[in-house]
Structures are given as C-alpha cells and as structure tokens.
Amino acid sequence: MADPVRTQSPVSYQLQVNRLPQKGTTVAIEADAAQRAALADAHDLLSVQRFYAELAVRPWKGDGVRVTGRVEADITQACVVTLEPLVARIDEEVSALFVPEGSRLARADYESGEIVVEAEGEDLPEAFTGDRIDLGALAEEFFALGIDPYPRKSTAALDLPAEEEGKEEGSGPLHEGLKKLREKG
C-alpha cells in the first residue's frame, strides 16, 4: 500500500546542478532488489522486475535545468478481473524543466489576470530549492504515469449472473410507480 507521507523516492538520486558542465551530463539509474521491492509497495504492484532510467541533464536559459530521457521497467500487476498476475512493460519518455526558487523564469506573469496554457505545449518549469534535483524522484513520477491503472488480461471476462426469465427490463416497484405517474399525466 502506498505511504502518503513518504517523502523520498526509493530510487532517489540527488544531482548537484549548480556545478553542471556546460554540455550537461547523463545519469543512469538502475534499481537494485530492495529499491524494486519498495517501488512495488509504493505503487501497489505485485513486483518490479526491472527499473532503469537514463536521463540527460543540461543547463537551460542560464540558471535553469532541462532533463530528458527514458524510464523503462518490467512490472507485474494484478488483473482487475481475475486478480491473476499480469506482466507489463513501461517505456516512458521523460521531459522536465527546473529553475531555482526565486528565479525570474519561475514566476508566472499574473499582471494581466490571465494564464494561457497550451494543452500540447511544454509544461511550466518546476522550482527547486537549494542546489540539488532528485532525478530518481522525477524518474519515479514518469514510471507511475506508465502504470496501467486497470490492468486486464485479454482473456479475462466477468461471469455475470444470468437474467431471470420472465422478468422484463424495467420491472419492479419503482418502474411500476413511474408507469402509474405517466398514465395519470
């Protein structure tokens, strides 16, 4: 079961961004067995067999940081119909912008009283405090986006009880009451 007060990602990877090289750096995060078990517990999965993230971290507009890359994972979930194990693969593209708290890039322009958001446009930059960004937490966010909230085996079917014979659709006391009201009016 997910812990609502958990603050640190099981795959936490703090990167100091105030000394980021001009060309940036690439970070690879591969979860060990304990981290995979913690991810499975945090996201209500039966298991996580593999978790791997490769992220390119580059300077952006002076004091900002752009993170791009991929998160890949192999997971096992419970089928929502049969509760049998269901293997799934996650392959999510990562794209995020970060700016230091107090940066002019972090402040939205509210003077006009309107905020224009494009549905297909880039997300607004996230503000960070200090000189570090948790790339593991970012990778976990995109991992969570790739999890099917209602996993279902292709062969799974619900066994619904058969309709009672002779009982027509819309029968019952409520239906009869409505029928009488319609006849009066």
From TrEMBL:
InterPro entries for this protein: YceD
Query: Where is this chain compositionally biased, Basic and acidic residues type?
Result: 176-185
This protein's superkingdom? Bacteria
| Region entry Disordered, spans | 156-185
Query: What is one Pfam family matched by this protein?
Result: YceD
Under which name does UniProt file this protein?
DUF177 domain-containing protein
> What organism does the record attribute this protein to?
Chelativorans salis
